[in-house]
């Protein structure tokens, strides 16, 4: 009897696997997996768009917490398949809740990947690593698909920020990542330094640099006026409100629809963030407290825009509110924008700040790529491989601490808006060195040969 039941079980498994491996249609299919908010995963959304251009039916799988751009939401060949988030559980030990969350994520992701049409490729973002890589690896083997791991960072290094490098879960995650990375069919990563480190751990990877999409371009004065007006009206941020109906604090429009800059406008400083542990926002806030403290001669006031959302956002906003009197010449704005409005507001900035320090030291911030594409120079905090992206005094500056950042801001903005020669030099370099490279051409060069299109 036991032998009969085992035989039935084995036959059932064979039939199920055979069904899961059977193509539903003749069209190629790609599963793009993010065990996080799809709206805050622009690189994976860009993958989806590129696969669709190559006639794939694309299933974009993750948490639908933020609104996606029209390029995806209006595309009939890209289906957003939202996962159910882990429910809030109170009164249980943190370790038990963490274990239950992993089981929930594994189960919901595994079932969803098996419900969807059979994939030819599964492309998963890492991190988060647990259980995303294992789940996608298992489904890829069951359904006969090739697994692509897109290494944005190391998951274990992110865990180390919270638990310390010697914690057992950090060591376990490290071994888990490197083992499954060796089993993947294709590995891609975001920097050459990252590629070299993956090679040390016997993982052969190709570098797919982040590049801007067509949404990012240098704005005209009219485009800037339109988005600044939208910030004042639709988003109701008083930091942008002008004295007249057709004006903002930065631009004005006359009766003939000619747009000009307001002469005594503040400078716009922008920083894009996921509000996570590998971005030290204390650096920026301390620097802005020091800004103009010794000499305000020819220094403009600043409207500091910090876009994005994440786990530490509320904490820092509360801190800024408590310390409001310490910011003598600074106003803050913390918007979360529609995906189509973000590139436009970014293009209005005079200067960008990047506080990404990289838990691993190997990844490069996509936000800097976006800023360069709209002609905005960047002040970036130093870490090992940032020089692959930010070149000193060519497209930006690199700083070490809050005092250094404050000095850089004063140096670049002194004489604003008409006599800040160093800032204008950086902007001019960016405009003169704009290349024809974009995400599409980079993807065609790197990914197309890897997946043998």
TrEMBL record:
<comment type="pathway">
    <text>Protein modification; protein glycosylation.</text>
</comment>
<dbReference type="InterPro" id="IPR001296">
    <property type="entry name" value="Glyco_trans_1"/>
</dbReference>
<dbReference type="GO" id="GO:0004578">
    <property type="term" value="F:chitobiosyldiphosphodolichol beta-mannosyltransferase activity"/>
</dbReference>
<dbReference type="Pfam" id="PF00534">
    <property type="entry name" value="Glycos_transf_1"/>
</dbReference>
<feature type="domain" description="Glycosyl transferase family 1">
    <location>
        <begin position="257"/>
        <end position="416"/>
    </location>
</feature>
<keyword id="KW-0808">Transferase</keyword>
<protein>
    <recommendedName>
        <fullName>Beta-1,4-mannosyltransferase</fullName>
    </recommendedName>
</protein>
<keyword id="KW-0472">Membrane</keyword>
<dbReference type="InterPro" id="IPR026051">
    <property type="entry name" value="ALG1-like"/>
</dbReference>
<keyword id="KW-0812">Transmembrane</keyword>
<keyword id="KW-0328">Glycosyltransferase</keyword>
<keyword id="KW-0256">Endoplasmic reticulum</keyword>
<keyword id="KW-1133">Transmembrane helix</keyword>
<dbReference type="GO" id="GO:0005789">
    <property type="term" value="C:endoplasmic reticulum membrane"/>
</dbReference>
<feature type="signal peptide">
    <location>
        <begin position="1"/>
        <end position="20"/>
    </location>
</feature>
<keyword id="KW-0732">Signal</keyword>
């Amino acid at each position: 009897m036991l032998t009969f039941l085992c035989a039935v079980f084995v036959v059932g498994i064979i039939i199920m696997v055979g069904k899961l491996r059977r193509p539903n249609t003749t069209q190629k299919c790609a599963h793009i997996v993010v065990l996080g908010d799809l709206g805050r995963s622009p690189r994976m959304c860009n993958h989806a768009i590129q696969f669709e251009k190559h006639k794939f039916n694309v299933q974009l799988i993750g948490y639908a917490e933020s609104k996606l751009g029209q390029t995806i939401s209006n595309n009939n060949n890209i289906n957003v398949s939202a996962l159910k988030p882990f429910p809030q559980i109170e009164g249980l030990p943190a370790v038990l809740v963490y274990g239950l969350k992993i089981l929930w994520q594994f189960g919901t992701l595994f079932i969803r990947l098996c419900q969807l049409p059979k994939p030819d490729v599964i492309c998963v973002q890492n991190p988060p690593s647990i259980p995303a890589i294992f789940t996608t690896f298992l489904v890829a083997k069951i359904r006969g698909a090739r697994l692509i791991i897109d290494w944005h960072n190391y998951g274990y290094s992110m865990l180390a920020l919270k638990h310390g490098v010697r914690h057992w879960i950090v060591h376990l995650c490290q071994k888990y990542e490197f083992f499954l990375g060796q089993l993947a069919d294709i590995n891609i990563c975001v920097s050459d330094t990252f590629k070299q480190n993956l090679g040390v751990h016997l993982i052969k990877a190709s570098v797919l640099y982040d590049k801007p999409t067509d949404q990012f371009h240098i704005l005209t004065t009219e485009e800037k006026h339109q988005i600044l007006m939208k910030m004042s009206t639709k988003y109701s941020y008083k930091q942008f409100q002008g004295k007249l109906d057709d004006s903002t604090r930065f631009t004005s429009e006359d009766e003939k629809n000619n747009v000009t800059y307001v002469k005594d406008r503040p400078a716009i400083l922008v920083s894009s963030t996921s509000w996570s542990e590998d971005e030290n926002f204390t650096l920026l806030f301390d620097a802005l407290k020091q800004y103009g403290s010794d000499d305000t001669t020819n220094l403009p006031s600043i409207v500091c825009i910090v876009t994005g959302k994440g786990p530490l956002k509320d904490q820092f906003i509360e801190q800024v509110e408590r310390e409001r009197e310490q910011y003598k010449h600074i106003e803050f704005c913390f918007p979360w924008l529609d995906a189509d409005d973000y590139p436009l507001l970014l293009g209005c900035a005079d200067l960008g700040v990047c506080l990404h320090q990289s838990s691993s030291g190997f990844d490069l911030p996509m936000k800097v790529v976006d800023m360069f594409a709209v002609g905005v120079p960047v002040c970036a905090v130093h870490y090992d491989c940032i020089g692959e992206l930010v070149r000193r005094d060519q497209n930006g500056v690199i700083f070490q601490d809050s005092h250094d950042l404050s000095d850089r801001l004063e140096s670049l903005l002194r004489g604003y808006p008409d006599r800040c020669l160093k800032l204008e030099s950086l902007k001019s370099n960016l405009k003169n060195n704009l290349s024809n490279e974009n995400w599409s051409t980079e993807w065609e060069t790197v990914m197309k040969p890897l997946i043998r299109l």
